[in-house]
């Protein structure tokens, strides 16, 4: 399945697939009127989850993989496997830039993948053109939570080098703000506040299946 698709980058309720013949028209979807000004040739074969640390990408991703009967992969785990090092060791030894290069390589590789649910590290979508490349082969859902919720969920964990700060909540707020414009370019934004993993996964699986119907 390969076709011309136009997506409103600010859309919060999912990308809209339209035919090439509709390409220059304005289309109404739900309550949104779109001035389609972005054209992306896409061949959606995977489902990727992006979003900040602690929003639940791994839990929701595992549930989605089960629902869609896809393989679950996690970019952090793949990097740890490839390097034989834990993420904090990579940050401390080789540095964050080296880690981002490993992420970018995986994103480039993902264009050849199919039938995978890809949980990404929290910074992956906010670096370079990773999100753009990821979207070439994957429907991208961004999971969302407030800084306070993220802080609550992560405060007793120690495996995230970027949150080892004197003021973790302040760090979360600042990082989230700097990444927000990237995250909002996902095909769909889904709040994870006060909703179960099953409910969130069900919602995303539905939207993913819609992309496979055309
Ligand atoms: C990072 C998020 C982490 C991991 C690394 C950097 C980030 O992944 O990739 O510590 O920059 O937000 P999780 O989002 O799975 O915690």
Oligomer: single chain
Rg from Cα: 17 Å
In CATH, what is the class of the domain at 42-155 and 206-212?
Alpha Beta
Envelope shape: globular
The CATH superfamily of the domain at 42-155 and 206-212 appears as P-loop containing nucleotide triphosphate hydrolases
Strand order in the sheet with the most strands? 6-7-5-8-9
What's the helical proportion of residues? 40-55%
Notes on the structure:
The protein is about 40% helix and about 20% strand. The chain has a domain at about 40-155 and about 205-210: P-loop containing nucleotide triphosphate hydrolases (Rossmann fold), CATH 3.40.50. Helix 3 (about 85-95) packs across helix 4. The chain is of the alpha/beta class. The protein has helices at about 55-70, 75-85, 85-95, 95-110, 130-135, 145-155, 170-185, 195-210, and strands at about 5, 25-30, 30-35, 40, 45-50, 70-75, 115-120, 140-145, 190. The protein is globular and about 50 Å long. It has a five-stranded parallel beta sheet, with helices on both faces. A two-stranded antiparallel ribbon has the order 1-4. It has a two-stranded antiparallel sheet with strand order 2-3. Shikimate-3-phosphate (S3P) binds near residues 53, 57 and 160.
């Amino acid at each position: 399945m390969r076709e011309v698709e136009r997506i409103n980058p600010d859309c919060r309720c999912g990308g809209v697939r339209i035919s090439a013949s509709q390409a220059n028209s304005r289309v109404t979807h739900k309550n949104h009127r779109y001035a389609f000004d972005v054209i992306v040739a896409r061949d959606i074969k995977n489902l990727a989850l992006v979003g900040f640390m602690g929003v639940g990408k791994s839990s929701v991703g595992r549930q989605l993989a089960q629902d869609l009967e896809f393989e679950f992969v996690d970019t952090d785990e793949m990097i740890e496997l490839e390097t034989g090092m834990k993420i904090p060791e990579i940050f401390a030894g080789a540095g964050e830039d080296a880690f981002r290069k490993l992420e970018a390589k995986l994103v480039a590789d993902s264009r050849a993948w199919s039938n995978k649910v890809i949980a990404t590290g929290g910074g992956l979508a906010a670096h370079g053109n990773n999100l753009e490349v990821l979207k070439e082969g994957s429907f991208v859902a961004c999971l969302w939570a407030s800084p306070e919720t993220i802080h609550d969920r992560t405060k007793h964990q120690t495996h995230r080098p970027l949150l080892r700060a004197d003021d973790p909540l302040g760090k979360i707020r600042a990082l989230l703000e700097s990444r927000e414009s990237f995250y909002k370019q996902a095909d769909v934004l889904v709040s994870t506040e006060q909703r179960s993993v099953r409910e969130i996964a069900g919602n995303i699986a539905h939207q993913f299946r819609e992309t496979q119907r055309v």
